[in-house]
Structure to design on (491 residues):
């Protein structure tokens, strides 16, 4: 589904990713762990197409398409979802209006009719219920006044509504209390744990992986993957630290 | 009230005006609005004509009267709306305006709100969206007379530049001669938040749609609570289409 080959990227002319390679197949969940400044968030933003993240080398194939040649909204329509570490507040724009327009923009790319208001509300209600998210909060402006945990749960509701093929989730566990962590973890499993979908979980800690069991764990350090293994690699990292394990 | 001589640049209220466009329309006849004690009224103005459009409105609110004035200033080469509101005791004046300009348009809103008696409330919200080499100006004076205690006046002025070649002028002014008053003004000129734009795009909205959604929200702030708020917002959105 996703094949990253020797990817290099700079932010403000500073090299961050230095020849990163990674393959994610359908049906797999990969966790990327690593110390601060390793390039974890840069990987997410580069794959999402955020302005300012400049690709200087390598390639990314997403389901047969050259991902790096697509605009951010085209990447979304192709089935990519980027979960933000810090979801952005957008005053005055309601979640429901925004998500309906976004979903219908994606459907248009695939030659589908726009979803009617009633059908959209039904879908939004189902997905909100899955994340135990208050429907009234979806009527409020995007992320404005939401707590850290509410923002992350709102992101998972967005993911449920947009139903991507591949989710890249950047520190979805940060800012979550224990209950919210479990709810988000269960949400990720319910929405994305399917044979035709895949997840790239970017995280500092093992705790989210207790709920979303990864098939593969990779250590990102110095802008490239320095070690890969199974789920037990995360436990090893937790116990011994990045330096000892990835050295 | 208009005087007979054409104003010059030295006249503060006309400093940014398009005097050449103003000349053939001069002198401007003021539209007089009077609201009797305890009564309330509202007016929505949409200035969308193609040529120059200049309006002057003089509002007098008696004790306890209230008035809601909304303006969509998005017309032709030159659009100027000037408002003078004189507030009696406990009167309430609500003003909301959106200015949408592109090309070489000159748009301006000039207000003077005069709190002459105690306990009157005034609220002004102006949102400008400017592209091309357009100029959008807000000059707003809140005057609080001696003895007008308990005055509550707020000016919230914001402008969004779609291109760096556009110009926004904003000058909220307070002139206070009374104690125990509450007056606030906020003023900001900026561009659309690039992080917000990327966030919307990352969910599948094309750049133009993402911009429109954010600008829609920005403009709508000028029409919140207006009797004709939705119709005004719709008209503003239609005008916005021409700028993007």
């Amino acid at each position: 589904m996703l094949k990253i080959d020797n990817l290099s990227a700079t932010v403000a002319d500073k090299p961050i990713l230095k020849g990163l390679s990674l393959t994610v197949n359908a049906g797999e969940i990969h966790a990327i762990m690593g110390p601060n400044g390793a390039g974890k968030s840069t990987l997410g933003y580069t794959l999402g197409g955020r302005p300012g993240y400049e690709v200087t080398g390598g390639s990314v194939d997403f389901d047969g398409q050259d991902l790096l040649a697509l605009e951010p909204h085209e990447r979304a329509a192709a089935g990519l979802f980027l979960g933000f570490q810090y979801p952005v507040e957008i005053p005055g724009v309601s979640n429901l209006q925004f998500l309906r327009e976004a979903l219908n923009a994606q459907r248009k790319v695939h030659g589908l009719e726009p979803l009617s208001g009633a059908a959209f509300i039904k879908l939004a209600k189902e997905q909100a219920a899955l994340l135990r998210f208050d429907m009234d909060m979806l009527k409020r402006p995007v992320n404005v006044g939401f707590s850290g945990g509410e923002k992350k749960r709102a992101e998972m509701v967005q993911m449920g509504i947009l139903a991507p093929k591949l989710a890249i989730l950047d520190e979805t566990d940060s800012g979550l209390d224990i209950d919210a962590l479990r709810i988000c973890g269960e949400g990720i499993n319910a929405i994305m744990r399917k044979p035709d979908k895949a997840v790239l979980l970017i995280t500092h800690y093992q705790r989210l992986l207790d709920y979303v069991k990864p098939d593969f764990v990779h250590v990102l350090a110095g802008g490239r993957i320095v070690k890969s293994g199974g789920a037990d690699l995360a436990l090893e990292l937790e116990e011994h630290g990045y330096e000892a394990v990835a050295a | 009230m208009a005087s007979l001589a054409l104003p010059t640049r030295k006249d503060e209220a006309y400093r940014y005006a398009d005097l050449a466009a103003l000349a053939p329309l001069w002198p401007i006849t003021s539209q007089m609005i009077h609201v009797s004690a305890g009564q309330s009224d509202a007016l929505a103005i949409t200035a969308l004509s193609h040529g120059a459009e200049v309006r002057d409105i003089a509002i007098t609110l008696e004790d306890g009267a209230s008035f809601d004035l909304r303006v969509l200033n998005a017309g032709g080469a030159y659009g100027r709306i000037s408002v003078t509101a004189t507030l009696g005791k406990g009167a309430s004046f609500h003003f909301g305006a959106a200015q949408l300009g592109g090309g070489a348009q000159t748009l301006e809103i000039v207000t003077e709100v005069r709190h002459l008696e105690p306990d009157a409330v005034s609220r002004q919200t102006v949102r400008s969206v400017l592209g091309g080499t357009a100029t959008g100006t807000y000059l707003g004076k809140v005057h609080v007379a001696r003895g007008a205690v308990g005055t509550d006046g707020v000016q919230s002025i914001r402008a969004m530049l779609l291109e760096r070649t556009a110009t926004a002028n904003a000058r909220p002014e307070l002139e206070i001669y009374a104690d125990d008053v509450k007056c606030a003004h906020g003023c900001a000129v900026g561009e659309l938040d690039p992080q917000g734009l990327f966030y919307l795009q990352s969910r599948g909205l094309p750049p133009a749609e993402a911009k429109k959604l954010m600008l829609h929200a920005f403009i709508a702030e000028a029409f919140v609570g207006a009797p004709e708020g939705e119709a005004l917002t719709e008209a503003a959105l239609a005008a916005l289409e021409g700028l993007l």
